[in-house]
Specification:
By secondary structure, this protein is an alpha+beta fold. The chain is built from six helices and eight strands. It has a five-stranded mixed sheet with strand order 3-5-6-8-7. The radius of gyration is 19 Å and the shape is globular.
Length: 266
């Protein structure tokens, strides 16, 4: 039985590796689709298909990752598979801040990167998947950093700080990311959830871009917000934007701390 189990886990690892570049492949396909139709955004049926596809992919990779980690000889402290029973919010968010600032500084070749202020209880912990939390916060911070730098110019002496506020409620832990990057026009708010909708030039992606923050482009692929919202909704949370055109944007990331949510399959 143990030999069969080892063989099964190895097969799962191969499947997981084989499907690593799926996001990139589909994204390039959407780029070609838009180019062929000469449109700047996809229609609702394609959007709905991609939402269902990526939500299903998140669930499948969650199950595969859980099975692989549970069969490792050494288990990490406070982890049950890929789920951390004591995810420290401040630590995960701070790591996302550091990585986003590095990517921003590298992209714009800045001597001084916009400051990001973190307001979060240092002992705030809850049960979650740290990699999912990191991914969502990292994407929000990349958007805010780009907006601030492009509004004030990459030669500015000083930038207004981006504020990250974490609040603990009975049902949710909410993370607010506030920037003074000029905001989004009201007519464009709905479009930011559309795959491949971006105001930056679309780059060519490394197929392994999502394995490391340092391979991720700062902007231009239009996948950050829609995928982050799916990650939040997978565990019963949500992601919302409120923007003041001419001033800035507030992003509210709601993370459910209750274990009473069913997997959203549709």
């Amino acid at each position: 039985v143990s030999e069969y189990n080892r063989s099964f886990v190895k097969t799962l690892e191969k499947i997981k590796r084989r499907h690593d570049p799926v996001v990139t492949t589909l994204a390039q396909g959407v780029v070609e689709y838009k180019r062929l139709l000469q449109t700047d955004r996809i229609n609702s049926s394609v959007q709905h298909f991609l939402d269902r596809f990526y939500l299903s992919r998140i669930g499948i990779r969650m199950l595969i990752g859980q099975q692989i980690e549970l069969n490792q000889s050494q288990q990490q402290k406070d982890y049950v598979g890929v789920i951390c029973t004591h995810t420290n919010v401040a630590q995960v968010v701070q790591e996302a801040i550091n990585n986003a600032q590095f990517v921003c500084g590298d992209y714009y070749m800045l001597m001084t990167v916009p400051e990001i202020e973190l307001h979060c209880p240092r002992d705030l912990e809850f049960m979650y998947v740290p990699s999912h939390l990191h991914h969502m916060v990292f994407e929000l911070l990349k958007n805010s950093l780009r907006a601030v730098v492009e509004l004030h110019g990459d030669d500015a002496d000083k930038y207004p700080p981006i504020k990250v506020v974490v609040a603990e409620g009975n049902e949710d832990i909410t993370i607010k990311v506030s920037d003074e990057g000029g905001g989004i026009p009201r007519s464009a708010i709905e479009h930011v959830w559309t795959y491949m909708y971006t105001t930056a030039q679309t780059p060519m992606l490394d197929p392994e871009f999502d394995k490391s923050d340092f391979r991720a482009p700062l902007a231009g692929f239009g996948y950050g917000l829609p995928l982050s919202r799916l990650y939040a909704r997978y565990f019963g949370g949500d992601l919302k934007l409120i923007s003041m055109e001419g001033y800035g944007t507030d992003a509210y990331l709601h993370l459910s701390r209750l274990s009473d949510n069913e997997e959203p399959l549709a």
